[in-house]
Design a protein that fits this description.
Length: about 625
């Protein structure tokens, strides 16, 4: 991406940020930039300078201030690392749901575990402030770029309008209507912005995106980390898919249209290895539509993916295995989300009653198959041609498990492997596995060979030294309560450590192709539009990548909203989508879906509907007489 180090912001921008970016007089305020800040007249003089200011707009999603990793913050009143746009977005979208709990006790943070925040919550204020700081940056850039006829500057202008639309979408999604509305047309200086209703804000975001669609570079034609038409189409898909939540209007046909644009015209392909999407060199991965770049040397921050990565490491995890020297010990997942990721008790289908053999072992009790080492409870492998070649998927819910094969559901005879060489011997030694998750197992009794392949690339559960249940609110700080997730790694796709062991190289995939696949399927199902066969095929592409050879493929009769929600969880967890998804499925607040810690209860309980959106920060309500608080707060 282009250089993000130049400190150029106009005096007018500082003025508008101080008044309209947060509209507050204490708590969190935007801070002035360095004394060497230049004015608009000296900055907006060449396309190259416009590009440098545009770089600040993009960098605002990743960095937290003017120098990095800390010391000269964009906003004050909260730890600079906490103030990161991406960090605040991730916390709001993930910690408030079944995907994760946090064990830290920073003021305002535990309330995200429980859906118990209020209008004075520091993290709510930081999220709100960061959104409006970005909007203020974009407004100032747009104000200066509008009159410039240079073709390159006009492209930069379209990109700035996209970034502003993205932040206004976050405002709509997180805070609803009734938020302050400021554009480049508003005066620079001290005044109190008027609020905008949800319908009007929805219309504005839609009109901005459709207006710039033709002005943006074609998919793949912009620099990595910058937006193009694919990003515009994806954001429109998200806007339309959630329209019924935002404005009580179904726009699923439009969601299908723009998702189809991404799929058919974007030129994107799925990354072959799911894990490579979350590695230190994921900028080379296929299927990325719009990413927030991070670099361990040049983009140092205690927010962003450094935060996502380090906060997930603790307990018995060895930080070196994840490419870092840091273990912050904060985040785990809930037992309910574990059940979504696991295929506990999975049995290979055998509708024709073909010959079977069985796979007893020490994993059975932890994997939903009854008692350990009990052939009568063990999962079966099936011989599709009754030719003594048996295949199937076996879920192994614990690492370093051992197993054997029995031709009957008893111990009258069994097969193991004395030399760990893939050859079976009668009454042979136990066969060891390493990883937990689904495994594809093939046994050929014609030549007494077997093969066990890992077939669960999306499951990153870490159980060693951890317990699934979180017994009480009081033990949240203990990292061993709740299973860990190891999705993000500061290692390259070939296992090399990133450029720095503290600040990671992992880019954040804000938009990616798999999400669009799932949105197409959901919009097709909800709106009776789109192609149901195509929807099924898209989901099967994702399942093939995760599990291989079509064993878990679905057909049209399987395509339900519940399946899509679970598939979104398995594919997109810890990528800042879950809160929006659960709202769309009416499972975020209330008692429709209960998970551990929801409602500040170890087993979970119903929460108030007001938590569907966050409150307008109290400091803004007090500072701007035009604003009204969101209902219930």
């Amino acid at each position: 991406m282009f250089n993000t180090k130049l400190k150029i912001v106009s005096v007018a921008l500082i003025a508008i940020m101080a008044i309209t970016a947060t509209s507050c007089t204490d708590d969190l305020n935007t801070s002035p930039i360095d004394d060497d800040v230049q004015t608009s007249e000296s900055v907006y003089t060449s396309p190259q300078n416009y590009q440098q200011v545009l770089a600040k707009l993009y960098a605002g999603f990743a960095t937290t201030g003017q120098q990095g990793p800390a010391g000269d913050p964009d906003i004050q009143g909260i730890d600079e690392g906490f103030s990161s746009y991406l960090r605040q977005l991730w916390v709001a979208q993930v910690i408030s749901t079944d995907e994760a709990v946090v064990g830290w006790n920073d003021d305002g943070l535990p309330e995200y575990n429980y859906q118990a925040w209020n209008a004075s919550n520091d993290f709510v204020m930081a999220l709100y402030s960061r959104i409006y700081y970005q909007i203020a940056l974009a407004n100032e850039f747009i104000r200066n770029a509008q009159g410039n006829e240079n073709q390159q500057v006009q492209q930069y202008l379209a990109e700035a309008r996209f970034l502003r639309a993205l932040s206004y979408w976050h405002a709509l999604d997180m805070f609803g209507g009734n938020v302050p509305f400021v554009t480049e047309e508003d005066p620079v200086g001290a005044y109190q912005p008027e609020p905008i209703g949800a319908q009007e804000l929805f219309n504005y975001i839609e009109s901005e995106l459709t207006d710039i669609e033709s002005e943006m570079p074609a998919p793949g034609d912009n620099e990595y980390g910058r937006a193009d038409q694919g990003a515009v189409w994806t954001l429109l898909t998200k806007l339309y898919l959630n329209a019924e939540v935002y404005i009580d209007q179904a726009r699923y046909g439009d969601a299908v249209t723009y998702a189809n644009n991404v799929i058919e015209q974007g030129g994107y392909t799925l990354e072959e290895d799911y894990g490579d999407l979350f590695r230190a060199d994921n900028h080379t991965a296929n299927g990325l539509i719009f990413s927030i770049p991070f670099d361990g040397v040049n983009t140092q921050t205690y927010g962003g993916t450094t935060f996502i990565h380090h906060a997930a490491i603790g307990g018995d995890m060895n930080p070196a295995n994840f490419g870092t020297s840091e273990a912050w010990g904060g985040h785990r997942t809930t037992p309910e989300f574990v059940d979504i990721l696991e295929y506990s008790g999975y049995q290979t289908p055998n509708p024709s009653g073909n010959d079977e053999i069985y796979v007893p072992g020490g994993y059975q009790a932890s994997s939903g198959y009854g008692s350990d080492w009990t052939p009568a409870d063990a999962p079966a492998l099936v011989s599709e041609n009754n030719n003594d070649v048996y295949t199937g998927l076996v879920y192994i819910g614990v690492s370093n498990a051992e197993l054997k094969f029995t031709p009957d559901q008893n111990w009258n005879s069994n097969y193991g492997d004395n030399g760990a060489d893939g050859t079976l011997e009668a009454n042979g030694a136990n066969i060891a596995t390493e990883r937990l998750g689904l495994h594809r197992v093939t046994v050929d009794l014609n030549n007494n060979t077997y093969e066990i392949e890992y077939a669960d690339s999306r499951n990153s559960l870490f159980k060693d030294g951890q317990q699934k249940e979180i017994p009480s609110v009081d033990v949240l700080a203990e990292f061993t309560n709740g299973y860990g997730l190891t999705k993000w790694k500061n290692l390259t796709s070939n296992g090399q450590t990133g450029s720095d062991q503290v600040f990671v190289d992992i880019d954040f995939p804000m938009f990616r192709l798999a999400d669009v696949y799932l949105m197409y399927a959901e919009a097709t199902l909800r709106g009776n539009s789109g192609d149901p066969n195509k929807a099924v095929n898209l989901i099967n592409e994702l399942r093939d990548r995760a599990h291989g050879d079509g064993v878990l493929n679905i057909d049209q009769s399987d395509l339900t909203l519940d399946l899509i929600l679970d598939e979104r969880g398995r594919e997109l967890y810890w990528e800042a989508h879950r809160r929006t998804d659960l709202r769309r499925f009416n499972q975020f607040t209330g008692d429709q879906y209960i998970w551990s810690m929801k409602g500040q209860d170890a087993e979970g309980r119903a929460t108030d509907e007001k938590y569907e959106i966050f409150p307008i920060p109290a400091s803004d309500i007090n500072s701007n007489l035009n604003l009204e608080q969101n209902p219930g707060y």
